[in-house]
Amino acid sequence: MGHGGGGAMSAELVENVFAPAFGGLVLAALGDSATLPVGGERIAFSTDSFVVRPLFFPGGSIGDLAVNGTVNDLAMSGARPLWLSCGFILEEGVEMSVVGRVAQALGAAARTAGVEVVTGDTKVVEAGRGDGIYLNTAGIGIVPDGVDIRPQRARPGDVVIVSGEIGLHGVAIMSVREGLEFGAAVESDCAALNGLVEAMLAVAPDLHVLRDPTRGGLAAALNEIAAAAGVGVVVQERRVPVPDQVANACAILGLDPMYVANEGKLVAFVPRERADAVLAAMRAHPLGAAAAVIGECVGEHPGMVVARTPLGGTRVIDLPLGEQLPRIC
Amino acid sequence: MGHGGGGAMSAELVENVFAPAFGGLVLAALGDSATLPVGGERIAFSTDSFVVRPLFFPGGSIGDLAVNGTVNDLAMSGARPLWLSCGFILEEGVEMSVVGRVAQALGAAARTAGVEVVTGDTKVVEAGRGDGIYLNTAGIGIVPDGVDIRPQRARPGDVVIVSGEIGLHGVAIMSVREGLEFGAAVESDCAALNGLVEAMLAVAPDLHVLRDPTRGGLAAALNEIAAAAGVGVVVQERRVPVPDQVANACAILGLDPMYVANEGKLVAFVPRERADAVLAAMRAHPLGAAAAVIGECVGEHPGMVVARTPLGGTRVIDLPLGEQLPRIC
């Protein structure tokens, strides 16, 4: 299961199995999407499959995830997402009303994100060879002129900003799946971030890095950036916005919120002189109201992410090895 | 299972469930891919999921299918396919060597077709919730200036040409899956048709319709074109190239070769004055060596496909209702 978890085992699979087979230099890049030249423009192209369990959860559904996941992957390269494809793998016997509800959620999420589902496909597998509905979306966006956002561009001195409270998606899935309750009900943060990114680019077209910390959480996102750019990252732990319910859930389950998945948050590496403007633009947007500076990019310990703890200590934030919670997206 | 079979039940699912939810006018078009404007160019965008069983079969594998299926969908709009995305859904416990072999096959097929895998994703589901490997590919191609190929453009008078012998993929899958033998071993015709299409466009940039008769076979492809364009189609049954092994297999199993899936064939609707040139160009290409004129497009019986039988009779070739053979691609 760990090979699908977005951590070190996933990276190994890409490096040892897929990259040699496909020989794609572009694939080898660690970004969430590929950037490709078409007629004087640059398009971004990305794909994700979705196998979340259950299909409907507090704050969203597999249909919302399938739109927002791919829209966010495109937005993390600064692209303006425009078009989605959609592939359904249905398990024989799944209720048509369930398929209909997922399709409705997917359509509504696409309208909210301002993208259009333009092509699709459906396959059916026997009962016991699937789990209701699996979905794949691929997406295309246009990268604005002059924008060059990718993990390799992180530079010492960059300010690290997170767009809001972390850990909500992972805890929402855990609570509904395991029947756990952590005080107030926890809803997934599942949302399309392209509008927020557009607001950020309006004040800082020279943003260095954007990343949505999904599987593997903020820890995986920061580690991938540190490794790609050969820089160090220092996080001030007490500045990371962790809501009480997430903190409580993690305490009970022995988890670290830094490793819990998000589906509507981004982390940005911003040139220091733009940090105030970007933070203000984010806080003026509904999806960035709780944005916070959580740390900085440094020249020391390249490839490594460390946290300064509230008590003045330092701990290493490793890339997660495998999967904390299977089928979270 | 019928809802995934590419026949009337699939069409119903798109019409009643997906189209209303997504509200996509482009999706509602019956073509294999969407055509979208980027920077003064037109790109084609298409997706398919692949759930074929077994993963390896005579003449190919799920990796070959995943490349050729999407490349062919793009080529059927006249596009020059360039880039693919690739999403793996792995079942827990699948051998890494099997994943590696599929990835190798996929990479090799991409190189043969002249396309690049540029972005990907991997998810893992529990044992018993998948079947080894499911794959999704989405693809992007560029539509050459002046090319306008889609089912709606079929016109009375058009000559209907098929690129070679039909039914091979379906019979190959059946024979390996059911352990049947039909005389000589049957190999799938799985192949990328973009080179053949390029050769055809070189002599006839004004081609009206191209379609790859996959699920539902030639019968489904011709019915979809007849319905989309509001024209009739007359097929001379004895001109349809059916290899002996396919005829034998179909006789034993009570199937009609017209409904058996192909993965390396196309059917073209060609303006009458271009038919000779197109046929010659096809026969000069390795994947069109057995190309044949099989019928014509007529103004009578709009939306209906009829076959003239060798004995001088006429029969209606209906859209297949559901699935003849599940998980064929």
Automatic annotation (TrEMBL), chains A, B:
PurM-like N-terminal domain sequence ranges: 32-143
GO biological process: protein maturation
Membrane spanning stretches: none
Classification via CDD domains: HypE
PANTHER family given in the database record: CARBAMOYL DEHYDRATASE HYPE, HYDROGENASE ISOENZYMES FORMATION PROTEIN HYPE
Family of the protein in this entry: Belongs to the HypE family.
Name the record gives this protein: Hydrogenase expression/formation protein HypE
Higher taxonomy: Bacteria, Bacillati, Actinomycetota, Actinomycetes, Kitasatosporales
